[in-house]
Amino acid sequence: KAGVTQTPRYLIKTRGQQVTLSCSPISGHRSVSWYQQTPGQGLQFLFEYFSETQRNKGNFPGRFSGRQFSNSRSEMNVSTLELGDSALYLCASSSTGPSSYEQYFGPGTRLTVT
Amino acid sequence: AQTVTQSQPEMSVQEAETVTLSCTYDTSENNYYLFWYKQPPSRQMILVIRQEAYKQQNATENRFSVNFQKAAKSFSLKISDSQLGDTAMYFCAFMRIQGAQKLVFGQGTRLTINP
Question: Is pLDDT above 90 for A100?
Fold first, then answer.
């Protein structure tokens, strides 16, 4: 099976702009979670989607949003970008079977805000 | 809220040695999952090993094994016969059984295997 894919891999944006990141889960996986990784804050949970519904959201401002499509692909959007949004954004997917708690990560999208 | 603490920011050992990475966590839950993830310099996060809290037997995956002490809320990772390819950041993570798929990560340990 193909792994989790994320596009784009690298992105440079200017403060105030908005950005959309995409994640395609492993085939058959219906849960998609997003994490932000920064040197200062480490890995922090953004949100999780299952069957097109957001099941949980981390402690991030409303500028961070996401959605999931019927094919389980997910997108996250960050509006009004700030310098502090520069980070590696990781997407992870998991199945619904006995190992549904195992998350498999994509390579990440490196976002740089200037 | 759950917290995960990795007290060793960096470790360095020689190839073929055994190394143990420490992790402690805090939770009021009785059933949960614990994980060790590896993030090599290429940045792809890889699941190394998992442990279900309701299982007393420590998990083992080839050269990787854990020492799970539930009462002490400790979850250490032992890497035997370390290899150059084990060089990476290692993250300990916690997940509740109930509710959404949300991993709570420690700050990570940077492990370097020297030739």
Answer: no
Measured between beta carbons, the chain B residues lying within 8 angstroms of A105 are 37, 44-46
Q: Check A101 against B100: CB less than 8 A apart.
A: no
Q: How confident is the model over A36-79, as pLDDT tens digits?
A: 999 989 999 999 999 999 988 999 999 999 999 999 999 999 99
Residues whose CB falls within 8 Å of the CB of residue B38, separated by 6 or more in sequence, listed in order:
B45, B46, B48, B86, B88, B89, B90, B91
